[in-house]
Amino acid sequence: MRSVKIPIEKNKEYEINIDNLGSNGEGIGRIDGFAVFVEGALPGERVFTKIVKVAKSYAYGKLLHIIQKSPDRVEPKCPYFKYCGGCQLQHLAYEEQLNYKTQLVKDALERIGNLDHVKVLQTIGMDEPWKYRNKAQFPVGLIKDRLALGFYAPRSHNLINIDLCPIQHDIINRVTELVRRFIQTYHIPVYQESTHTGIIRHVVTRVGFRSNQLMVILVTNGELPRKKEFVSIIREGLPAVTSIIQNYQAERTNVVLGRKNQTLWGSDYIMDAIGDLKFKISPLSFYQINPIQTETLYNKTLEYADLTGRETVIDAYCGIGTISLFLARKAARIYGVEVIPQAIEDAKENARINGIENAEFLTGESEAVIPRLSKLGVKADVVVVDPPRKGCDERLLQTIVDMSPKRMVYVSCNPATLARDLKYMAEHGYQVDEVQPVDMFPQTAHVETVVLMSRKDK
Ligand SMILES: C[S@@+](CC[C@H](N)C(=O)[O-])C[C@H]1O[C@@H](n2cnc3c(N)ncnc32)[C@H](O)[C@@H]1O
After folding, report:
1. Per residue in 101-114, pLDDT tens?
2. Between the CA atoms of 356, 360, 366 and 368, what dihedral angle is there, to the nearest 10 degrees?
3. CA-to-CA distance for 458 and 449, rounded, in angstroms?
4. Most ligand 1 atoms within 8 A of CB, residue of 317, 320, 412 to mutate
5. Which of 277, 313, 334, 338 to mutate to test the pocket of ligand 1 (most atoms within 8 A of CB)?
6. For the chain, first and last CA: distance in Å?
7. Which of 418, 394, 395, 389 is nearest to 112 (CA)?
8. In terms of C-beta density within 10 A (0-12 exposed, 13-18 middle, 19 or more buried), how is residue 356 classed?
9. How far is ligand 1, taken at its centre, from the CA of residue 338, in Å?
């Protein structure tokens, strides 16, 4: 077999034109047709890059110098942008971020889903694409024996110490300041991944944008000393706090929250509202992180579901029942399915709080529970799925095909698995009618998408 000659060498410097952005927001250029990913470079730029890694069909280069700047390049707002792995696109004008996300979805549908002629609408952006996050999870650790609290550097577990993050709600920045004060005042040992020792691992903050309620969760490896003092510091510094929780995570794992919580002060949950519905949110329950765009996303889901009041609807991966309850008032009956028991407890309570009686919530994996519902004779007219990044299990897609609903609405946070699952549905009697990306995560390379599919009647 003839081996393909790689036209570049590691550690050498090259001048290249960048003509595209990759799925993680990296610039992509070519040297004799060979793809080179350069983090921080933008399409339309000519840059100097030093090759740091060469693989079979692509290479990674470090951005050394920009020879010709893109007109879309802007000054990043955050001083940590260069080092922190949280945002990838702060150097790109917001309008262009939206164009990039639309293209990202189109490319995934074409490349992975073989869906070339699908209507992908322009990504819906925010008027003010900053301070939008209602939840932060900051790792706590040491950098050269000094306390560090912030984010990990890209693709690593190297901590970056951060005082202020411009995509978080302001109050979240204040929480980190107080946690720092607690650790330093009482000399509480912080967690060290390499030795699995120390106590404080993460600080997680959740804030209700509409309710102004605030939950502070300290994730610990074992017991927390000075609990009373921790509560005092948080309550004095943040009189608006409604819930202070200790979460136990004693395992060697990347999963931030453990299963056990202890309420140190206040309520076990916070409340928030989306549209005219109120929601109860527990520490372990999923809740969309951008509440302003969530309303846009859910309204689009409702529009695509096109309910008349006579339909039976299944909402798979329902979390605390937010989409289910949004749709329930326009449907005859709705079933929400979710794997986290506490989220299902919240969903039931949320139905009660909002006076909704036609919603039933079931605990378990969608791919196990929905086939059982089908066997019991439940036939959905509309199915909504909103899975985690890995997408839907094929057993669930198979069950949906067998159930043969008129419409399926797919809400996705990962264009690649979305495209894979739409391909399956397109091969099994469904057509993609419309695709609407929504910018839930400004300044990052992530995009949320809502898709309407309908059954192709023979
Ligand atoms: C992206 S969230 C969507 C939640 C909800 N639809 C919302 O908008 O808030 C995905 C949810 O799926 C749940 N989940 C993960 N795997 C699951 C599975 N196999 N079956 C059911 N739920 C699952 C997660 O716990 C999480 O609540």
Report:
1. 999 999 999 999 99
2. 180
3. 28
4. 317
5. 338
6. 48
7. 418
8. middle
9. 6
Distance 285 CA to ligand 1 centre (A): 9
Distance from the CA of 411 to the center of ligand 1, in angstroms?
11
- What is the fold, at CATH topology level, of the domain defined by 13-68? OB fold (Dihydrolipoamide Acetyltransferase, E2P) (2.40.50)
Tokens representing 370?
Answer: 């929905």
pLDDT digits (tens, 9 = 90+) for 293-331: 999 999 999 999 999 999 999 999 999 999 999 999 999
Q: How far apart are CA 454 and CA 433, in angstroms?
A: 7
Cβ < 6 A, ligand 1 pocket: 286-288, 317-319, 322-323, 337-340, 343, 365-367, 386-388, 413
User: What is the position in ligand 1's atom list of the atom closest to the CA of 319?
Assistant: 27
CATH architecture of 102-126+290-455: 3-Layer(aba) Sandwich (3.40)
Distance 380 CA to ligand 1 centre (A): 19
Q: Is the pLDDT of residue 85 over 90?
A: no
- Residues that are catalytic: 413
The answer to whether domain 13-68 and domain 102-126+290-455 are alike in fold is no
Report the nearest-CA residue for atom 1 of ligand 1. Answer: 388
**Residues 338-396 pLDDT 10s:** 999 999 999 999 999 999 999 999 999 999 999 999 999 999 999 999 999 999 999 99
Residue position matching structure tokens 């605990």? 363
All residues at 6 or more sequence positions from 427 whose CB lies less than 8 Å from its CB, including other chains: none
CA–centroid distance, residue 227 to ligand 1 (Å): 32
**Residue that is written with structure tokens 């005219």 in the block:** 276
Level-2 CATH architecture, domain 135-274: Beta Barrel (2.40)
* pLDDT greater than 80 at residue 271: yes
DSSP for residue 309: S
The residue ranges of every structural domain in the chain are 13-68, 102-126+290-455, 135-274
Using CA positions, which residue lies closest to atom 27 of ligand 1? 319
What atom of ligand 1 comes closest to residue 318's alpha carbon? 6
